[in-house]
Write a structure and sequence with these properties.
heterodimer; A: Immunoglobulin-like; 6-stranded mixed β-sheet; 52% strand; B: 3 domains; 25 strands
């Protein structure tokens, strides 16, 4: 067993020392192994050092629904026979102290090592000491895991719509934002799509807490999720030029896990955007809609597709994020169409992107007439019931050089009857809708009568 | 091999690059620019009603392997999330591997993989704020007020922080003009001109537009090909109207805001008050009838006496409004035509003879079922 016995060194000295990549100092936290044979008792004595092993690997699992990242890192440490004391500290980071765990990796290590206890020194919020019993001295791989706040990820999409608006090339991106106070070099990055349940915020747990306050356990479901999510990473083929990294997607219970191929380095306070997928020629439908509940009061152009196989998608849900649409303006140039802040899109769900009113397809409504009938007077000759009959006209005009689809929702209030010779259908209790195709350069007038009973007539 | 290049847009739309071997680490370590790659094309597009899209083409010298290219835009108003960066050649073997965003900087770094050393042309597209646009029109009306020449101007003002040495500016209707545009500079360009556009001149009495009851003079342009327009929707903008005075010059006769006018619609422009035409309103009958409890009808006769002091007959349009349920009575008279525009609105056409001879419009209607 190799031991590097060095002069005593304090945490402050560690922090002020210049950082070297080979050190175990990562950002502002540090791991120190203390030998219990030499320094068996007090905390003051324990800062005797020790080895500075390289970090073998680090894995970040980042959740987009919470400010939460699970960090798992592996190092090879030398253990002696008997009790070993390991000190772990994380000053100036956003690590949740209640989540820090130590696991031997591999059967040999698990057979030889046993964590006897973990103690949290009263004088430091950002430190813990494990006592690890070793039955067979050797170097073993261990995994240290913890939750940290400050790392997040988001999805973005760019769609390039062809000139005829019949299809689009859709590129999805994921962007990782690191504001954790820590730089993670060559990390394996996994992104979790889904809404998890948390009982406390990691950022709150990362702050110093009152002495004696209870320490909540990490959510069991997250641990379970992590254990289940172990999957292989595509190796870089190592031939030819580098390609954009594959992002593998796998379902897991109510969640999806995106695994970024290879490793990524994300310095503190940087963000990094990676391509998640590209799908060419996603079939697209253009529908002009008047649906005030969903798209506001204007008659707007809505581009639609579905997250399913028919639309060359549907392999996984699309996490919430901005969808930016550009149109092919010819010669490879782009024109901006619009942006939708999309919610999570499950597989097989429709996506409707409102790109705003279009001067080339317009709608006007007017009330042609109003009549009142069936007036009811009570015994004191006061009006207590009446019925209105209103005739309306909607005119839709298509100035485009192509056929368009139109869908109009028209809501009424009160106890009404709706009558029209056009093919309206009931959408809900208060709303009628009609869907039709309008040929290039044509217009269509829709008329309908609304009879509304009021007062006693409505009973 | 990792090759690093830096482009900047600091205060200018020009890009600069630097060649160096580096990797993104901390802000302090980031190297700034050196040589400028050739700028080959800049396009500024206004086809979205609220956003301006800028596109630039740059040829970048890549080396085999992974190249790092920085793009920064300090002092300009680029929407970072909107940036699209692609090789111009759709079959290019070059790949954009990732995009990194440094903290606290208007900048990003692309990691670009190239199969060999080459010069590759890229196109960079992004939304840029604070490039203002404005549409205005100038109409030269013929002396007989039958036709006009209609000029459509597009004005841009650049508050984006960037400078465009030379760019193609493309309007919403696809017109392109090439100009330079400095920060803070404005340019106004003629983008369309239509000659011999047919013009309808209307005299209009409409209390919702002129509450004192004065008669307005409107020019009505129908945005159709038959009338000499109809090629594009007409954007909202100020229309300044001049008239050929028959002596080789023009006189300014008024201005109005032209509302957005879809193809097929009318653009109505008020050029002023027609003071030679007067309308006097009188309520001749205002009776309540057919009482049923608190419900009643009204019987009303409105009289409009019109005097035209011009030397020739004119046609006056009276736009009248009655709220609620109502019916026009058959003994209404004095009009040449009427149109019930909608439930509340009726439009009468009345011929007014020359030289002040009065003519009366009798509008008899009943408002029903009031309470």
């Amino acid at each position: 067993m190799k031991r590097n016995y060095q002069l005593p060194i304090t945490n402050d000295q560690f922090r002020s020392a210049p950082r070297r990549p080979s050190q175990l100092v990562i950002g502002n936290w540090l791991l120190v192994i203390c030998c219990s044979l030499l320094f068996p008792a007090t905390l003051n004595a324990k800062e005797e050092l020790v080895t500075l092993p390289q970090r073998d690997s680090v894995q970040l699992t980042i959740y987009n629904s919470e400010d939460l990242t699970l960090v798992r890192e592996r190092r090879t440490l030398s253990f002696k026979q008997g009790n070993n004391r390991l000190q772990f500290s994380w000053a100036n980071t956003l690590i949740d102290p209640t989540s820090v765990e130590f696991h031997p990796v591999g059967k040999d290590a698990q057979d030889a090592l046993e964590v006897l206890d973990a103690s949290y020194p009263a004088e430091s919020h950002e430190m813990l000491i494990w006592t690890v019993a070793c039955t067979k001295p050797a170097g073993y791989s261990v995994e240290i895991s913890y939750f940290t706040s400050g790392i997040s990820w988001s999805a973005e999409y760019t769609g390039i719509v062809d000139a005829a608006e019949g299809s689009m090339d859709l590129t999805a991106y994921v962007t990782v934002h690191n504001n954790s106070g820590e730089e993670y070099e060559n990390a394996q990055v996994r992104l979790v799509v889904g809404v998890i349940h948390m009982v406390e915020r990691i950022i709150d747990l990362a702050q110093p807490r009152q002495q004696g306050a209870p320490r909540p356990m990490p959510p069991a479901e997250l641990e379970e999720l992590e254990r289940m999510a172990e999957d292989g990473i595509n190796e870089d083929p190592g031939t030819g030029m580098a390609k954009p990294k594959e992002i593998q997607k796998a379902g897991l219970s109510e969640y999806y896990i995106y695994t970024v191929e290879g490793q990524e380095t994300i310095p503190n306070r940087w963000s990094k955007r990676l391509r998640s997928f590209v799908v060419q020629d996603v079939p697209l439908k253009t529908v002009y809609r008047l649906e005030p509940d969903k798209f506001g009061p204007s008659f707007t152009k809505v581009l639609e597709f579905k997250n399913d196989e028919e639309h060359k998608l549907g392999k996984e849900p699309l996490p919430d994020g901005l969808i930016r649409l550009y149109k092919d303006a010819g010669q490879g140039r782009l024109g901006y169409m619009g942006t939708l802040a999309s919610k999570y899109i499950p597989k097989n769900e429709e996506v409707k992107i409102n790109v705003g009113p279009d001067a080339e397809c317009t709608l006007k409504e007017k009330r042609l007439s109003l009549r009142k009938k069936d007036l009811v007077l009570d015994q004191w000759n006061r009006l207590v019931g009446w019925t209105t009959v209103e005739d309306f006209e909607l005119e839709v005009r298509n100035f485009r050089g192509r056929d368009v689809e139109v869908e109009i929702h028209r809501s009424m209030q009160g106890k009404f009857e709706f009558d029209s010779e056009d093919a309206w259908e009931k959408h809900d209790a208060d709303t009628q809708k009609i869907h039709f195709t309008l040929k290039a350069g044509e217009s269509r007038k829709l008329t309908f009568k609304v009879t509304t009973k009021n007062g006693e007539n409505a009973r | 091999m990792n090759k690093r290049m830096i482009f900047t847009l600091a205060g200018t739309a020009a890009l600069a690059s630097v060649i160096g071997i580096s990797r993104p680490t901390t802000v302090e370590a980031r190297i700034k620019l050196a040589t400028l790659p050739d700028k080959e094309a800049v396009v500024v597009r206004f086809d979205h009603p609220n956003q301006v899209l800028v596109e630039e083409e740059r040829t970048i010298s890549l080396q085999k392997g992974v190249n790092t290219v920085d793009f920064s835009w300090a002092g300009t108003n680029i929407d970072k999330g909107s940036i699209v960066f692609r090789p111009v050649d759709v079959n290019s073997k070059v790949e954009i591997l990732s995009t990194s965003y440094p903290p606290g900087e208007a900048a990003l770094t692309w990691s670009i993989s190239s199969p060999d050393a080459r010069s590759e042309k890229f196109r960079l597209s992004y939304l840029m704020a604070n490039i203002q646009r404005e549409t205005d029109y100038r109409a030269i009306v013929s002396n007989d007020e039958k036709t006009l020449t209609f000029r459509h101007y597009f004005k841009i003002r650049n508050w984006s922080g960037g400078t465009f040495d030379s760019a193609d500016f493309i309007t919403r209707d696809g017109k392109t003009f090439e100009k330079g545009l400095d920060q803070g500079e404005a340019k106004r360009v003629l983008v369309n001109k239509w000659d011999k556009v047919n013009l309808n001149k209307e005299y209009v009495y409409d209390l919702t537009r002129q509450y004192e009851g004065k008669v307005m003079t409107d020019y009505v342009l129908k945005n159709t090909k038959e009338m000499g327009l109809g090629a594009i929707p007409l954007e909202y903008g100020k229309v300044r109207i001049y008239q050929d005075d028959g002596k080789g010059t023009t006189a300014f006769t008024g201005e109005d805001w032209g509302q957005f006018t879809a193809v097929g619609d009318d653009m109505r422009l008020n050029i002023g008050i027609a003071q030679d035409i007067k309308v006097e309103f009188k309520k001749m009958v205002n009776d309540v009838e057919n009482r049923r409890g608190n419900v009643y009808d009204t019987n009303e006769v409105d009289e409009y006496e019109i005097k035209n002091f011009k030397d020739s007959e004119v046609e006056l349009t009276l736009v009248l409004r009655v709220q609620g349920e109502w019916e026009m009575q058959k003994d209404s008279e004095g009009y040449t035509s009427f149109e019930r525009v909608d439930n509340e609105t009726i439009k009468f056409k009345v011929k007014a003879p020359a030289k002040g001879a009065p003519v009366k419009l009798k509008f008899h209607y009943k408002r029903l079922n009031n309470w």
